[in-house]
Amino acid sequence: MTTADLYPTEPLKLWGKAKQLREQYYQNYASAHERGGLRWSGSAWALDAIPTAFGDDVYSLTGEPYAASVSHDRKFAKECMDSAEAYGFARDLCSYMRIYWGGMHLDKYAFGGKFPKPDFIFQTQICCSHSKWYQHVAQVEKVPQFYLDVGVGPFKELTTDRVEYVANQLHDGIAFIEKATGRKCDDERLIRAIRNEMRSTSRWADICALNKAKPAPLDEKTMYSLYVLATLHKSSQWCADFYDELYEEVKDRVARGIAAVPNERCRLMSDTQPPWAFLKIFRYLETYGAISIGSLYTFGLEGIWEEKPDGSWGGRTLPWEKGIEMKDRDTALRLYADWNLSKPQWQHFYNPQLKTEMMLRIVKEWGVDGVMLHLNRGCEGLSLGIMENRLGIAKAGVPIMTFEGNMGDEREFDEVRTQARVDAFMEQLGLRKKAA
Amino acid sequence: MITAGIDMGSRTVKVVLIDTAAAGAPSVKKTHLIFPGDLDGDAAADKAYDEALNSAGLKRDDVSSVFATGAGRVMVNFAKERVTEMSAGAKGVSYFYPTARTIVDVGAEEGRGIKTDGTGKAVDFAGNEKCAAGAGSFAEAMSRALQLTLKEFGDASLRSDKTIPMNAQCTVFAESEVVSLIHSSTPKEDIAKAVLDAVASRVCAMVRRVGIDKDVVLIGGMVHNAGFVQSLKTAMDIDEIKLPEFPEYVAALGCALLAAEAKH
Question: Which of A73, A95, A185, B250 has the smallest CB count inside 10 Å?
Answer without folding.
Answer: A73
